[in-house]
Amino acid sequence: MIRPRPFRVAALAAVVGAIATSSAAASPLQLLPFEHPAAPQVTAYAPVETEAPAETPARFRRQVVNYPTNEAPGTIIVDTPNTYLYFVLGGGRAIRYGIGIGREGFTWSGVKTIEKKAEWPDWTPPPEMLERQPYLPRFMAGGPGNPLGARAMYLSGSVYRIHGTNAPHTIGQRVSSGCIRLVNADVEDLYNRVKVGAKVIVLPMPERSAAKRVGQGIY
Questions:
Q1: Closest CA to 85 of 219, 218, 197, 183
Q2: Domain boundary assignment for the chain
Q3: Out of 93, 96, 151, 163, which one is annotated catalytic?
Q4: I need a surface site. Which of 82, 150, 197, 212 has the fewest CB within 10 A?
Q5: Which candidate in 179, 180, 182, 200 is catalytic?
Q6: Tell me: the pLDDT tens digits for 114-142?
Q7: pLDDT, tens digit, for every residue of 155-207?
Q8: Would you give the distance in Å from CA 210 to the centre of its chain?
C-alpha cells in the first residue's frame, strides 16, 4: 500500500483552506451597494415611500381606451371618482392611467393648466402641509427617495402637482394632500406627452357621469 507523504497531505490541506478562504472573502463582494442576496435591487437609501410587492391591478395599468370628448388633444382629464387620469389623443381615444388622489377632505376640482414641468423635482412642502405635519423636512432634493418621484407637472395657481410616486400600491387610493400621483413609469410617459400650457380638468368627487365614459382597452 502506498501511503501519502506528509508534504502532500499538507499541500492538499493548504489548497482546501485557500479555496474556503477565497469563497468566504468573495461573498461580501456580491453585496453591491444596491443589492441584497435575499431581495435583489433593494436600494441602499431609505425611500420616503417603499414599493409594495403587490402588482398593480390590471385596470390601473396604462392603456389606450375609447374616450369620446369634445376636449382638444393634449388635454388632461382627471376622473377623481374612479382614480383615472386621461390624456386625450383625439378621434375618440385617450391614454388612461391609474392614479392616487387626495384623501378625504383633500379632494378638489376645477380647471388648471400645466404651469411648468420638472424631472426628478426637489420637494419643498408648502406651509399648509408643514402646519399639519411639522415633522416633515423643509426641503428634499430630487432623486429616487423623493416623494414626488421621477417627474412633476405643476398646476397653475395652486400648490398641486401631477407627479410620480415610489409607492405604486397607493395607486387607486385616496392618500395624498391633493396632488395627483402616478407610478414613475406612467408619469414619465405622461411628462413626455404633455406640453406646458396644456389644459387640466379635475372632475369633482360627486361627479359620476365620467364613470359612464370609462372605455374598454383598444390595445
A1: 183
A2: 58-213
A3: 163
A4: 212
A5: 179
A6: 999 999 987 677 677 767 777 666 656 66
A7: 999 989 999 998 888 999 998 888 999 999 999 999 999 999 999 999 998 74
A8: 25
Strand 63-66 to 93-98 pairing: antiparallel
Determine the Cα–Cα distance for residues 27 and 32; give it in Å rounded to an integer.
10
Q: Which three cell numbers stand for residue 45?
A: 437609501
Set of cell numbers at residue 36? 441584497
What distance in Å separates the CA atoms of residue 20 and residue 4, rounded to the nearest whole number? Answer: 23
Q: Which three cell numbers stand for residue 108?
A: 378638489
CATH of domain 58-213: 2.40.440.10
The proportion of the chain whose per-residue pLDDT surpasses 70, expressed as a percent, equals 63
- Which residues, listed in sequence order, are joined to residue 66 by a DSSP beta bridge? 93
Q: When comparing pLDDT for 136 and 144, which is higher?
A: 144
Catalytic residue list contains 163: yes
Q: Name the grid cell of 69.
A: 370628448
